[in-house]
Every structure is written in structure tokens, then in C-alpha cells.
Amino acid sequence: MVSPNATTKLNPWDSKTQQYHGGQEWSKIETFVEDFSVTTNCFGTPQSGLDAVAESIHNIHHYPPADQEPAKSDLARFLWPEDDEFAANHGRLLMGNGASELIDLVVRLSPQGTWKAGPWDVQYMEYQRSATTNERTILAPTAAQPATMTCIVNPNNPTGEYMDIDALKAWIRANVEDGGVVVLDESMQPWHSADWRAQSMTSQHAFVAEMLAQRDVKVYVIHSWTKLWCCTGLRIGSIVAPTADHTAMLKKHQVPWSVNSLALPFVSAVVRDDAFLHETWTSTTQWRADQIAALTKVSADHAAKFGTQPWTFLGQSFLSWIWIDVHDARVADVLVEAARLAGTPVRAGEYGYERPTHVRIKVGLPAKFAVLRDAWAKIEQLD
């Protein structure tokens, strides 16, 4: 298996200063088929977005609009389709250079003190990296003590665990100090269904206002839009602050023009692409179930050949990835290397997540997943 600390061009991470992440091997693999190490939409980038970027390339000699318009309003309308809700909340929205910029911004500007992740086994590590860099005291996710700042990824990446909106609000009430800050990452929430907004904190205006008025708790909601619309190279994120004043505070500290002149028109195009979203909701759940069924057979074949344990497939049925516990670090290493050699790299749980018996794979188009499945099915030895 390729270690991120090895002297290899496949993984360019500086392990002393950066947080390990998937999506780095694809351009270095001669037989590349599909990047299963990321959680992007299996349908790829919407054609509507590609067309918008192609047209916008002719304007790169101009600065992007400093107010992020009209893309910010188009994204706000996507979040809040109704006129009254759009008008009341548009000022709470700010776009950024992926979720990463906004994570760093809100963590850096929040009150010092303790920090706690959501109640999962492990979650996306960029929040903890930022908390550590800003010298916050890290509490265990299971700690009963409320934290000054808590960052929750829901649905959770990589484990696929999920709280519905009522359970989420109850957890927030119990796990943040008065005067504290909650950052909720809902990047994968839109995969839930066509009714995803009802389960999103972006629709819970009364709760957000209550937490602020009664306990001075600030609730922020972050989205990375690069997964849903498969545009990780464009770096598009957004944050919804508790009030427009809190958004203004973030904007004051944000570098100008952090969302570029290709990303902004891309957003304006894809938020109107209803057919792409319908296709996503229609196919992802079924293909995810099909992948689990196929890999259950591979797991059983491996158990017969090697005496290994059956694999455990984790995560909600609507998600764009599968978190797999193969119960043996040696097996995980072999799977990761076989996937890479087949041109279908997967995410090793060992690095960053520190879960050496786990691997994560995206839900892919059936023909591309078949390449990964066959690579794992053809493994003849574990040494």
C-alpha cells in the first residue's frame, strides 16, 4: 500500500502540516478508470456546469464580482426556494473557496476554549485540524462535558452515520456551552431525497434564533458543493451564519475574490439543473445497494479462500459512498493496492482516520464499479 509519508509522487501530502485526504492519485495512475477514493457524484460534473465554465473562461481577464453575485443569490434560492424564506435569509449566506476556507474562517474567529467533534466513531478531520492549529483543547467525542465549540458532520463522512433533525437539535442543546459555537457540516445532506431541505438545519430558523437569543449559541451550517456537483477542482463552499451580522463578521476577515470567475457561473447553472438532481436521487440508492450485494459475494469468496471475516458495510442507504470494515488491516492494505493497480483508487481508512481495517469507496457508475469489483474478486493472496 502507498503510504502518504512515503517518497512517492502518488501522495503529495506533507504529513507534518497537512491533513490527509483522498483524490490525489488519479492523475498519476496510468490505467486510471475512476476515482473511488472520493465521495463525488457518480454522474460526474453536470453538463450545464461544464457549459457555463467553458463560456466563462473568456472572462478570466476580469476580476470576479466582490459580492459573489448573482451566484450567491442563485445558491440562496436553491437553499430557500420560497420568496419569503429567500428574502429573510439571503443575507446569512456567504460563499467560499470550498468548505475548507470557511471551516478555517469560522474556527479561527470563534471564542477560544474547548472543541468537540460530533458523536461518531470518527469524522471528517479538517475541523479537528483547524481546531488543533488554533490551539483549542480537544475533547473526546463521547465526553459528557459541553464544549465551547462543537463541529458536527451530518451525514457523517466517513462512517455514514446520521441524525435526523430532531435528534440533531437535541444533541446540540446538550453538547455546547452557553456562549459557544456550533458548526454543522451538511455537505452530503442533499443526497437524502428531494425533501432534503426539511431535514436540513438551513430550514430550522426558529431553533437557530432560539439558541442565539436564549443561550448566545451561534449555529453555523457549512456545505461543500463540490461533492454533489462533482467539481472539486473549482472549490465551492458556503456557510449560513445565524444572522446577517455574523455573516458580515466572516466577510470582514475573508480574503477578497476567494470564489473565482469560473466557479460563480458554474453555481448559477447547476442550481437550476433539476434533471441532474432527479437522476442522482433516482440512481444512487439503488447502485449503492447493488455495490454492497456484489461486494458481499466478494467478501464471502475471500472468507472461503483465505479464512477472513465477512466485511461489514456501513452508512445510510442514500449516501454516495460505503464505509467498509474488513476487520483485518492486512486485508485492507491488499484491497487498497489492488484497487490502485486496477485504476480505481479507494480511500484507505488507515491514514487520517486512523481506522486501518476500513476502506471507503464511492458509489460509482455500474460499469466502472465492475472494474473495482473484479480487481478485488481476483485477489489470490494476502501476502
Chart the SSEs and their pairings.
Layout (H helix, E strand, L loop, with lengths): L46 H10 L14 H9 L3 H7 L3 E5 H12 L4 E4 L8 H8 L3 E3 L7 E7 L11 H11 E10 L19 H11 L2 E7 L11 E5 L3 H10 L9 H8 L3 H33 L5 E3 L6 E5 L3 H13 L5 E2 L9 E5 L3 H12 L6
Parallel strand pairs: 2-3, 2-4, 4-5, 5-6
Antiparallel strand pairs: 1-7, 6-7, 8-9, 9-11, 10-11
Defining traits:
single chain; 383 residues; alpha/beta; 7-stranded mixed β-sheet; globular
Provide a short characterization of the protein structure.
The chain is of the alpha/beta class and 383 residues long. The protein contains twelve helices and eleven strands.
Verbal overview:
This protein is α/β, with parallel strands linked by helices and 383 residues long. It has 12 helices and 11 strands. It has helices at 47-56, 71-79, 83-89, 98-109, 126-133, 165-175, 205-215, 244-253, 263-270, 274-306, 329-341, 366-377; strands spanning 93-97, 114-117, 137-139, 147-153, 176-185, 218-224, 236-240, 312-314, 321-325, 347-348, 358-362. The strands form 2 sheets. It has a 7-stranded mixed sheet with strand order 1-7-6-5-4-2-3. The protein has a 4-stranded antiparallel sheet with strand order 8-9-11-10, with helices on one face. The longest helix has 33 residues, at 274-306. The chain is globular, with a radius of gyration of 21 Å. The N and C termini lie close together (12 Å). The model is unreliable at 1-9 (pLDDT under 50).
Enumerate the strands of the largest sheet in spatial order, edge to edge or round the barrel.
1-7-6-5-4-2-3
Question: Oligomeric status of the shown chains?
Answer: single chain
Number of E strands: 11
Characterize the main sheet: 7 strands, mixed
> What fraction strand?
5-15%
Average pLDDT, rounded to a whole number, is 93
Share in helix: 25-40%
Which ranges are low-confidence, i.e. pLDDT below 50, for 5 or more consecutive residues?
A: 1-9
Structural class: alpha/beta
SSE pattern: HHHEHEHEEHEHEEHHHEEHEEH
* Helical segment count: 12
Q: For the CA atoms, what is the radius of gyration?
A: 21 Å
| Shape annotation | globular
- Distance between the terminal alpha carbons, to the nearest Å? 12 Å
